[in-house]
Automatic annotation (TrEMBL):
This protein's GO CC annotations: cytoplasm
Coiled coil: none
Organism for this UniProt entry: Photobacterium marinum
Family matches, as InterPro entries: Lysidine-tRNA-synth_C, Rossmann-like_a/b/a_fold, TilS/TtcA_N, tRNA_Ile_lys_synt, tRNA_Ile_lys_synt_N, tRNA_Ile_lys_synt_subst-bd
Binding site for ATP: S25, G26, G27, L28, D29, S30
CDD domains: TilS_N
Name assigned to this protein: tRNA(Ile)-lysidine synthase
NCBIfam families recorded: lysidine_TilS_C, lysidine_TilS_N
């Protein structure tokens, strides 16, 4: 019965041979998912699957669990890899959220476009997720909880057990005489989800046996409402987004529409949604701040800032003002923090002179106190003023590469060459492949 339901769910997305990536913790749910997938592949050999076990290092048993996962996957004829992650625990983010984020990053490393990610969430997980969303005071998007199928990294994320209860999964596992790992942290009711799982959900289910289906129906309705709102606002959001993915404030309209556009803009950028209070702050303290202000709001390692009447979403990067790297002619210089690659190329019609013998070329990021004369300009100017004139936002001024010949600034990547270093021998190529979040 469970296999038939699982197989029919997968076949909906298998019009062509597919590659599946299965998130495999080794716990009951994913152990059953692996077993079901093994049967599916034996009946549909045109498809392939890779199981990925993420080793979080949070338990003394983690090494043992990894070996079990490798053994069980081998028994099912499924390739399996172990991805080790290091969790940088902070007060700002819960262990659960941090582990989840790192888990999906690890899964993406093994995911190709058009692949299907399989995870083992079920009906009881959905109930807990909705209760957690209610606890946070979420709106329709949060209360929509988990969809059976969503887009993921150029492919799909499928939850084929979402309509199945935990009890049904356990009965299947015992009937098939499967072994699985028991994570001791799952019993720790200090974690919100575990508290709901062990203390709250059983009482709700005992009182109202149909509550899982009712909650799933409500989540589905909330998902439909949120999707409708996104569809209705999609064209307006397209008009409000600048080509650099910033948001044009004059296009936001009324407060009610504007806040929804900001929410959907953040959704497109793929960041954790701010709370209602934080969204109110973005509107009143950032969007409607005084024209000469430099407002910002930070949450979950990102921040929204305003510059020249546009909203920008940026990562909260560590300071790199002391970073320095030697740069050789015609050799790519890899920059830190997703800033791409810089190359000083010898070229016939360039803008920079060639370095003199013994003149070391370095890339740096500390502009403080510099005063230079760009080629073609009259007089020296402080680099802070030049950044303003060239329209460089304040948060990018210590993230713009500075090219030094010896101890003298020769050029600012993407902006100008200092007059004393102008020539026709070389040019700078800066390939800055950043993500949606700048």
């Amino acid at each position: 019965m469970l296999y038939s339901r699982f197989a029919s769910g997968l076949e909906t997305y298998c019009d062509n041979p597919r590659r599946f990536v299965l998130a495999f913790s080794g716990g009951l749910d994913s152990r059953v998912l692996l077993h079901l997938m093994g049967q599916f592949l034996r009946q549909h050999p045109q498809h392939r699957c890779l199981a990925v076990h993420v080793h979080h290092g949070l338990s003394n048993n983690a090494d043992c669990w990894s070996q079990h996962c490798l053994d069980w996957a081998q028994a099912e004829g499924i390739d399996c890899v172990v991805e080790r992650v290091n969790l940088e625990l902070t007060n700002r983010r819960s262990v659960e959220q941090l582990a989840r984020d790192e888990r999906y990053k690890a899964l993406k490393k093994h995911f190709h476009p058009q692949d299907i990610l399989l995870t083992a969430q079920h009906a009881d997980d959905q109930l807990e997720t909705v209760l957690l969303a209610l606890k946070r005071g979420s709106g329709p998007a949060g209360l929509a909880a988990m969809a059976e199928c969503t887009s993921f990294a150029g492919g799909y994320h499928l939850r084929p057990l979402l309509g199945v209860t935990r009890l049904q999964i356990e009965e299947y596992g015992r009937a098939c005489q499967l072994d699985w790992v028991e994570d001791e942290s799952n019993q720790d009711t200090r974690y919100d989800r575990n508290f709901l799982r062990h203390e709250v959900a059983p009482q709700l289910i005992a009182r109202w046996p149909g509550i899982r289906k009712a909650v799933a129906r409500s989540a589905s309705l909330c998902g439909e409402q949120d999707a409708l709102l996104e569809e209705l606002l999609s064209e307006k959001l397209d008009q409000a987004m600048h080509h650099d993915k910033s948001l044009i404030i004059s296009q936001l309209g009324s407060e009610r529409i504007g806040k929804q556009l900001i929410r959907h803009w953040l959704g497109r950028c793929g960041v954790l949604m701010p709370s209602q209070a934080q969204l109110e702050q973005i509107w009143h303290s950032v969007v409607n701040a005084k024209p000469d202000a430099n407002p910002q709001l930070c949450w979950n390692q990102v921040q929204v800032r305003r510059y020249q009447q546009r909203l920008y979403l940026i990562k909260q990067w560590p300071d790199i003002r002391h970073w320095q790297q030697e740069c050789q002619l015609d050799q790519p210089c890899c920059l830190p923090q997703d800033l791409g690659v810089l190359t000083l190329k010898q070229i016939g019609q360039g803008q920079l002179r060639k370095p003199k013998p013994g003149e070391v070329v370095t890339v740096r990021f500390e502009p403080e106190g510099l005063e230079v004369k760009p080629f073609g300009r009259s007089g020296k100017r402080k680099i802070k003023k030049l950044f303003q004139e060239y329209g460089v936002p304040s948060w990018n001024r210590r993230r713009t590469p500075l090219i030094y010949y010896g101890e003298e600034l020769a050029a600012v990547a993407g902006l100008f060459v200092v007059e004393a270093f102008h020539g026709r021998d070389c040019d700078l190529e800066w390939h800055n492949d950043t993500s949606d979040v700048q």
